[in-house]
Write a structure and sequence with these properties.
It is a single chain. The chain is α/β, with parallel strands linked by helices and about 475 residues long. It folds into 2 domains: about 270 residues, Purple Acid Phosphatase, chain A, domain 2 (4-Layer Sandwich), CATH 3.60.21.10; about 120 residues, Flavocytochrome C3, Chain A, domain 2 (Orthogonal Bundle). About 35% of the residues lie in helices and about 15% in strands. It is built from 18 helices and 15 strands. The N and C termini lie far apart (about 155 Å).
């Protein structure tokens, strides 16, 4: 009985072992050999090659370079005429729109010459422009000869209080500005590494007290090692276009050169050696930018943007408020910003009302003209204390005996007869031997400039004020 049970168990173990082998079964025996021998003789089935790995697409980089300069104190259109373009409030909107479209991959630079000439009003403008630049966000600002003319001490004091406005110049040495000028900057524009430096033309600052300027080529070449390893290298060249072209060729490692001191209108990108040379134009009338893109190992391609900052572009309300604050400072400064008045070679002014005594018909036409209301238009926009506006909206503002204020000399408010015909006091005293000037287009163009009156046409405008010689 036990022997029979053991035999049965042995048979079960044998059967279980044969049925649990997970390996493929051996090939059946051929007619000429055993199954094991035949399996060894048969070559294995070919293994298909692994699919080739697809190459990773080249990484594409993009960055937007916004550039401006040669503002020369032009904060905002005065509103005297339709079609005026430019202004920092519109520029801030232009910048914010590009910043949003670029996803923040944006670099914003300025060529310098924020103000036009040394004066107390220019100092107030310099302060205001820096505040606006703080608000808008600038990555590199150069300084020009017009800015330095304000004095190193004044400029340094304003910049120390606004260190977030980075002044970037490699070849300029001004003792008072040693703590605020840096030779270059590296900007990370959402993964795009941008190198920015500035160079100033030594000729433009020659003879300025306390200002030393190294040769641009030497100063630029000294930065070649620092510029290496960046994705994009930008030179802000405070120079006229011919000098900037020479620097671009001599230095050879810049991708973009922003220049154009004295260049009235923006220029399309110009290939100079391996660089693109651009100029923003004067007075900030246009918003200019380059949309740059490239694949790793390739060169930069670009889209050129030039947009007239016109009336359809919304004004940034924060910048508008800063300009209002500036106008408030003008009112407080009063006599400190008034011009130094000089004698007029043709004598004193008399006022349009005196002209009416003999020229009644001409005066009636004048009364109904916009010229007669010129001072009122300044009051409407709170610019009636701005010397730059008063010079074209009053009689004799820069001369002895002319307009000083609406309260003191109201008879000289508006564009009176003597704006076109010259001082009339001597003519009133002796109209037989003391004649007045006839006026003409040349005199009109002193105020009706392209910036202030872009649609001005002498023949058309003169018809509005034409009057008989009675």
């Amino acid at each position: 009985m036990v022997r029979a049970l053991c035999a049965a168990l042995a048979m079960c173990v044998l059967n279980a072992g044969c049925g649990s082998d997970p390996r493929p079964a051996a090939a059946p025996a051929s007619e000429t050999g055993t199954g094991a021998a035949a399996a060894a003789a048969t070559p294995p089935a070919p293994v298909p090659p692994a699919p080739a790995k697809a190459e990773a697409p080249a990484a594409r980089k993009s960055v937007t370079l916004v550039y401006g300069g040669e503002l020369q104190g032009y904060l905002t259109p005065c509103g005297c005429s339709e079609g005026m373009i430019g202004g920092l409030a519109r520029r801030a909107t232009f910048l914010a729109d590009l910043r949003q479209k670029s996803g923040g991959a944006l670099v914003n630079v300025d060529l310098g010459n924020l103000v036009k000439e040394p004066s107390r009003q220019s100092e107030l403008k310099f302060m205001t422009i820096l505040e606006i630049y703080l608000l808008a966000g600038f990555d590199a600002v150069c300084l020009g000869e017009r800015d330095l003319a304000l004095g190193g001490g004044f400029v340094a004091g304003e910049l120390i209080n606004r260190r977030e406005v980075p002044i970037v110049i490699a070849n300029l040495k001004v003792e008072e500005l040693a703590d605020v000028i840096r030779p270059f900057r590296t900007i990370d524009a959402k993964g795009v590494k941008v190198f920015v430096t500035g160079l100033v033309d030594p000729e433009l600052v020659s003879g300025m007290t306390g200002v030393a300027c190294e040769a641009p080529r030497a100063a630029g070449m000294a930065l070649a090692a620092q510029a290496a390893g960046h994705d994009c290298r930008v030179l802000v060249a405070h120079a006229a276009l011919p000098e900037a072209r020479a620097w671009a060729r001599e230095l050879g490692f810049f991708d973009i050169v922003v220049a154009g001191v004295g260049q009235e209108d923006p220029t399309a990108p110009e290939k100079v050696g391996g660089a693109l040379l651009v100029a923003p134009g004067v007075w900030g009338k246009y918003g200019c930018a380059l949309r740059l893109s490239r694949e790793d190992g390739g060169g930069w391609t670009y889209e050129f943007i030039k947009e007239a900052l016109g009336e359809t572009l919304a004004a940034n309300p924060n910048v508008v408020q800063l300009i209002k604050d500036y106008q408030g400072m003008l009112a407080l400064e009063d006599t400190r910003i008034a011009p130094e008045r000089k004698p007029h070679p043709r004598g004193l002014f008399t006022g349009s009302a005196r002209c009416a005594e003999c020229h009644a018909k001409a005066y009636k036409i004048f009364e109904k003209s916009m010229h007669a209301k010129a001072l009122d238009t300044l009051k409407d926009i709170k610019s009636h204390v701005d010397p730059e506006c008063l010079s074209c909206h009053t009689v004799g503002y820069h001369y002895e005996g002319g307009f000083t204020s609406a309260a003191v000399t109201p008879e000289f408010g508006g564009v009176g007869c003597e704006c076109c015909h010259g001082p009339g006091a001597q003519h009133v005293e002796d109209n037989e031997t003391r004649s007045i000037e006839r006026g003409g287009e040349e005199g009109c163009l002193e105020c009706h400039t392209e910036l202030r009156s872009p649609a001005f046409n002498y023949k058309e405008y003169f018809r509005r004020i034409a009057h008989p010689e009675d």
